[in-house]
Design brief:
Elements: H1 2-22, H2 24-28, H3 31-34, E1 41-47, E2 95-101, H4 102-113, E3 125-137, H5 147-161, E4 180-200, H6 207-227, E5 230-238, E6 242-245, H7 247-252, H8 262-275, E7 282-289, H9 296-310, E8 316-322, H10 330-339, E9 345-350, H11 356-364
Parallel strand pairs: 4-5, 4-7, 7-8, 8-9
Antiparallel strand pairs: 1-2, 3-4, 5-6
Length: about 375
């Protein structure tokens, strides 16, 4: 019975994953889902999936095919059933929220977008020890006693010896029946990685553009966390000046100044030089902007910083340009014309939420 239940549960999970994969493009642009993100779980709304079953109607009320009727008689309903009746007390149809681990969500994302596994470039790795329970033995601490296996051994002994009374079933384990979990300690390398997010928060970047960035960074985080056990995240905002902030401030602050993109690239360079040696860390940088910059001179300075200071030290630099009615959009062209030769630079145009799906594939599809 237990094995059948586990089989049915696993089959149900596979069905759910299939449903999510079919509608992944919709979920990627779903703002409400991210708000339900816990530490390790995400709740995803799905239409209720029920096992087909018979449902009995009200006895004695008749129905289609019972008795004689007059032309024009409504089928299946009496008066007051057109939706205008009194409030009822029966449950309606609901949307089921299915909980997935972030690992399961990353697996679905990788399969659907055909994302290659990342090849870490950092040379130094953190090594941790992990205990895994691998078997059963006769000795061990009481805290690791396996009660089900102990009960099974006691039952086998009593049945074999003829002391088990089926009319008064009592199973009493003795010391020889005790079974304990055994474990094996293994060392697991955990590669270091850091993501540095940068975003333009000048007056031309409104809530709509920031929401696109929030959604995209959630999925980038989800994938990279599935590839690295040790992952840190840093946040930089900029208008005419740049500063490091926490995650909440990153997505909520609103400025009304101008835009000097090089200020963010300079701060990003300083953070890497201070805290993240390329010899030891896998470094990812993502910059989101509407493509409006203060001057041609600053565009040239940005290219210089990228070419000389950032691209040689990082795994990947992703520039995502979100469309804004107030942004010129020229910075995308500047980077393309100057640095498109670099396989570490990925440019993505994100006009709306529906474009996030393709943008994620562009950013992560190289396996850097």
């Amino acid at each position: 019975m237990i094995m059948n239940m586990e089989h049915d549960y696993n089959r149900f999970r596979q069905i759910i994953k299939g449903k999510i994969k079919q509608n992944l493009r919709k979920y990627i642009s779903n703002s409400g889902m991210i708000g339900k993100k816990g530490k390790d779980l995400v709740s995803i709304p799905l239409p209720q999936v029920d096992i087909p079953r018979f449902r009995f109607g009200n006895n004695g009320n008749g129905g289609a095919g019972q008795g004689e009727g007059e032309p024009g008689t409504p089928i299946g309903g009496g008066e007051g059933e057109s939706g205008q009746g009194e409030a009822g007390n029966q449950p309606g149809h609901h949307i089921k929220e299915v909980e997935l681990t972030l690992e399961e969500l990353a697996e679905i994302l990788g399969e659907e977008l055909e994302l290659p596994n990342i090849e870490p470039r950092g040379k130094k790795q953190i090594v941790t020890q992990k205990d895994r329970y691998t078997g059963i033995r006769r000795t061990g601490p009481e805290s690791l006693r396996h009660f089900k296996r102990t009960f099974r051994e006691a039952l086998k002994r009593q049945v074999t010896s003829g002391t088990f009374d089926i009319k008064k079933p009592r199973v009493i384990p003795i010391r020889d029946d005790y079974r304990y979990r055994s474990w094996k300690t293994s060392t697991i390398p955990e590669t270091n990685a850091v993501i540095i997010y940068m975003m333009d928060v000048s007056g031309s970047m409104w809530d709509e553009q920031k929401e696109i960035v929030r959604l995209e960074t959630f999925w980038i985080d989800t994938w990279l966390r599935s590839q690295y056990k040790g992952l840190e995240t840093r946040y930089i905002i900029h208008d005419a000046a740049a500063q490091e902030v926490d995650r909440e401030t990153f997505f909520t602050v609103q400025e009304n100044g101008g835009t000097v993109i090089s200020s963010a690239y300079k701060l990003c360079t300083q953070i890497i030089e201070k805290d993240y040696s390329p010899e030891e860390w896998n470094i990812y940088a993502f910059h989101f902007s509407d493509g409006d910059n203060w001057s041609r001179e600053d565009n040239e300075l940005c290219v210089e910083i990228l070419e000389d200071s950032l691209l040689p030290k990082i795994n990947l630099f992703g520039y995502g340009q979100v469309e804004s009615a107030y942004g010129s959009g020229q910075f995308f062209d500047v980077l393309f014309e100057s640095l498109s030769y670099s396989d570490k630079l990925v440019l993505s145009h994100i006009p709306d939420k529906d474009a996030i799906y393709q943008s994620i594939k562009e950013f992560l599809g190289k396996g850097k």
